[in-house]
Write a structure and sequence with these properties.
The chain has 381 residues and is of the alpha/beta class. Helices cover 43% and strands 15% of the residues. The radius of gyration is 20 Å and the shape is globular.
């Protein structure tokens, strides 16, 4: 059963979050070297000051509720999603679109995509990953492949046997890739702004491919500590995060600073305020706090390990028409097209001049234009 849903966080929950923010012990927090050693405390304090003096969750809640939100259950998993119906063009709608976020993002990433895609004639569906925001907690950690099955079921409950289009970045790219891999008859087109999943035997061969693989290995050693912790010991981490809203803000803010395509000074401090404003970052953080989904959001990394979904099997391939928007992500750059083409049916590849990991927020117009171009080119779209 699909039921309308309205975001209405109990005031007691908001008061509890605010009290913890107000009581955070800044004096006991030593500085290990600003952004060279993790989140920059000066930027975190700027965000928290805005939180306590100017941020208005109720205004943000009202703004988010302008979209039609729904709840449903697919194979025992509660799912939250936005669904906006497309405008009929010449008596017919185009294929529905599924937009999939990642961590530490949320459905908020796609707000600026909804109206243009609806105007193009697409029904637009933006779900929250299982265990994120208002989607229910899974009974146990699940990863991108299982989530692809659940989202395929969601689209089936909404549109029956109709084919649909998919876009994703971060974990959304993995969910989308597995969905296209496992349900090629239903997925008419896959658009990615990150390429995470490749066939196990899709090995780097050219000098360019080997350079990319070496860079990925260096990045893994420098930047993937958070992922190892979330993939192996999410429960221990959740004990700390569930009790500290400022801790959650620091955990998430560090990724927005480290992964975005923004200027950095000689000490590595990112000018993240060039790409994001405080209200946007805080609303994204609050979506993890108001439901305490910061705890189960990290389960996704554990589920990824448990289900063994890091690779397609040797010889595996996504034959669905695929587009890649390759942004200059400072930590997770896309592989060379030649390498990605070993695992995907690449029909559109765009090298972007600017924009990092959070492309839907950093360069929304550029990414949206690429998505619309691809969706418009897919047969029957």
């Amino acid at each position: 059963m699909i039921e309308p849903f309205v975001i209405d966080v109990p005031q007691e929950r908001l008061d509890a979050i605010r009290t913890r923010v107000e009581n955070f012990d800044w004096a006991g927090l030593a500085d290990a070297g600003e952004w060279r050693s993790g989140v920059g405390l000066s930027d975190l304090r700027r965000l928290v000051t805005h939180w306590l003096t100017r941020y208005d969750w109720r205004a943000e809640e009202q703004r988010l509720n302008r979209w039609p939100h729904f709840m449903t259950e697919v194979e025992g998993q509660r799912l939250h999603f936005i669904h906006v119906r497309g405008q009929a063009l010449e008596g017919a709608r185009k294929l529905p679109v599924l937009l999939i976020h990642g961590w530490p993002g949320s459905f908020l990433e796609f707000e600026r995509f909804i109206e243009p895609l609806v105007a193009d004639g697409h029904d637009v569906v933006v779900p929250s990953l299982p265990g994120y925001a208002f989607s229910g907690r899974p009974q146990a950690p699940i990863g991108p492949r299982r989530t692809g099955e659940l989202f395929h079921g969601l689209m089936g409950s909404l549109f029956g046997d109709a084919r649909y289009l998919v876009q994703g970045g971060d974990w959304g790219s993995s969910v989308g890739a597995w969905l296209a891999h496992d349900f090629p008859a239903s997925c008419a087109g896959l658009h990615l702004n990150m390429v995470m999943i490749q066939a196990k035997d899709a090995l780097p061969e050219t000098a360019e491919e080997r350079d990319w693989a070496a860079g990925r290995e260096r990045s893994f050693l420098q930047d993937m500590g958070y992922a190892i912790e979330q993939a192996t010991r999410p429960q221990t981490l959740s004990v700390a995060l569930s009790d500290s809203p400022v801790g959650v803000a620091g955990w998430i803010l560090e990724k927005f600073g480290a992964w975005s395509d923004v200027p950095r000074d000689a000490d590595g401090r990112p000018d993240l305020w060039q790409a994001f404003d405080e209200d946007l970052l805080l609303t994204n953080i609050m979506l993890y706090l108001v439901s305490n989904s910061i705890v189960t959001s990290t389960w996704f990394y554990r589920g990824h390990v448990l289900e063994g979904s890091r690779w397609f099997a040797a010889g595996g391939r996504v034959d669905v028409p695929t587009a890649v928007a390759s942004f200059p992500d400072p930590v997770f750059p896309a592989p060379p097209k030649t390498l990605a083409a070993k695992s995907y049916n690449i029909v559109q590849w765009t090298e972007m001049a600017a924009g990092g990991h959070f492309a839907a927020l950093e360069q929304p117009e550029v990414l949206l234009a690429d998505v619309r171009r691809f969706f418009g080119s897919v047969s029957g779209a």
